[in-house]
Amino acid sequence: MLELHTLTIHQAGDLLRRREITSSELTEAALKRIQEVEGRLRALVTVTPELARHQAQEADQRIKSGEATPLTGIPAIIKDNICTQGITTTCSSRMLQNFIPPYDATVVEKLKGAGMVMVGKSNLDEFAMGSSTENSAFFVTANPWDQDRVPGGSSGGSAAAVAAGEAMYALGSDTGGSIRQPAGFCSIVGLKPTYGRVSRYGLVAFASSLDQIGPLTRDVTDCALVLQTIAGHDPRDSTSVPQPVPDYSQALVPDLHGLRIGIPQEYYPGEMEPQVSSVLKGAIAKLEELGAEVQWDVSLPHTRYALAAYYIIAPSEASANLARYDGVKYGYSYQEAENMWQAMEKTRQYGFGAEVKRRIMLGTYALSAGYYDAYYLKAQKVRTLIKRDFDQAWERVHALVVPTSPTPPFKIGEKVEEPLQMYLSDIFTIPVNIAGIPGIAVPAGFVKGLPVGMQILGRPFDEATLFRIAYAYQEATEWHQTLPELRDSAL
Questions:
Q1: pLDDT (tens digit per residue) in 263-312
Q2: Concatenated DSSP letters for 360-390?
């Protein structure tokens, strides 16, 4: 019997267009699946059954009239730091626990225009600051492959929900790996587009020069379909680039002849878990089999400084962006203060969690008089050097292949008390945001039953090449077809 919640977007779309199923049936299957697994996963902050059923009925009418797009009638989940008109957008923070945006983010507008069915909003690390979804003010999300382990972060709710079949795709945001690392941890596909490819209008800002919205999907074809819909110039976002969006479906060919792929030595350190390294070497061998020319002597020498630069740039921008949460216009407001200054202080004391406060303090320090040149300015200079390394690599190769994380998913609670260890879990994803280039994570195998992801990095605005490599690899392997069993656990 066909289990509707296990379908991909393109499989479900084919069935919808052939009238073998309806969007209402797909939506009920997704809502039923949420009911079945959400108690163990806790991937969603908000479930929207009434809205989903209404959108499904509209989608069915649209399909009947022959006006369907590839996403019409397909159940989706939106990360809860992306504004949805009339539906709470909390950023998994007490500060915005009851905030209802009066407008949709551009990506939500585009998906609605394509006939999306939204079944819910996903959990995240508070204000997208974290690598495990343990920093949510509400609850910890579990990994569908092992519910004692984290799903990654900050888009952990989105990744876990897609992997578990609660929806066929989700949107996430990626500031230092927050789409790609959880995609790797949950054995799904996650793309961080080029900075400026997708509008950030309506994304609650963390670090404005690093943030980018992207899709999390079951396979590469689905990822291309979602990016096709959400990409494009938006005059409401001053960082949106007026670059034409190609037809990504043309890139989905199972052949890599003529492509040069680089393996940067800095991304395969000796201290990386040997089994993870072994999975990646197997994946690279498969790319060679498919016709790619692999170059093992590529170097990105300034990669070693990326983590340090990121944890100055991102907190600095966060401290500026989060200054707006003062209890005056919207969000949580402490009401028992004796004066304005105490009200502001208590609002921020009780409204923000520990990790958000830590990053605000780091950023405020880095931007303060006497330290700006020593820290922030120096970090921006390092950023230029990191981007230059990538620019030089593109003269030799079309793409780079690296791990998404140095380890498989770690246990809940294992790193939450050690911020530096937690930050190190993003060591392979952060340089991509610093340089503004695109990166896609795809399932590459398992270590003791736990997923391992492969990351493919490309030239700015060349997502098509990433799709080509990822699709060819996917078609030659079976990792994307393996689904988690969602066992009971102590959680």
A1: 999 999 877 889 999 999 999 999 999 999 999 999 999 999 999 999 99
A2: HHHHHHHHSTTTIIIIIIHHHHHHHHHHHHH
Length of the chain: 491
Q: Residue 117: helix, strand or coil by DSSP?
A: strand
User: Phi and psi (nearest 5°) for 443?
Assistant: -60, 130
Q: Tokens 């043309």: give the residue.
A: 250
Among candidate residues 79, 110, 121, 415, the one labeled active-site is 79
Specify whether the CB–CB gap between 174 and 440 falls below 8 A.
no
For 189, list phi and psi in degrees, rounded to 5: -100, 135
Q: Which helix (H) or strand (E) holds 41?
A: helix 23-41
Is-above-0.70 flag for pTM?
A: yes
Q: d(Cα 410, Cα 417) in Å, to the nearest integer?
A: 13
Cβ proximity of 118 and 124 under 8 Å: no
First-to-last CA distance in the chain? 31
Q: 234 by DSSP, 3-state: which?
A: coil
- Looking up tokens 């990654």, which residue turns up? 152
Contact 437, 461 (CB under 8 A): no
| CATH class of domain segment(s) 4-261+395-481 | alpha beta
Residue type, 380: Q
Q: Assess whether 278 carries a catalytic annotation.
A: no
Of 321, 309, 315, the closest CA to residue 363 belongs to 315
- Told to judge if 23 belongs to the known catalytic residues of this protein, a careful annotator would answer no
Q: Where are the beta strands (DSSP E) in 29-101?
A: 44-47, 75-79
Structure tokens given for 372: 């700006």
157, 85 Cβ separation under 8 angstroms? no
Helix axes 463-475, 220-230, angle to 10 degrees: 160
Structure tokens at 147: 């519910």
Per DSSP, 479 falls in state G
Pull the structure tokens for residue 31. Answer: 């809502």
Spot the catalytic one: 136, 154, 187, 316. 154
154 is catalytic: yes
pLDDT in tens, 132-170: 999 999 999 999 999 999 999 999 999 999 999 999 999
Tokens of 385: 């050097």
Buried/exposed 387-402: b ≥16 CB within 10 Å, e otherwise: bebbeebbeebbbbbb
For residue 156, give both structure tokens: 């952990």
Catalytic site residue from 23, 132, 178, 199: 178
Report the C-alpha gap between 177 and 429 in whole angstroms: 5
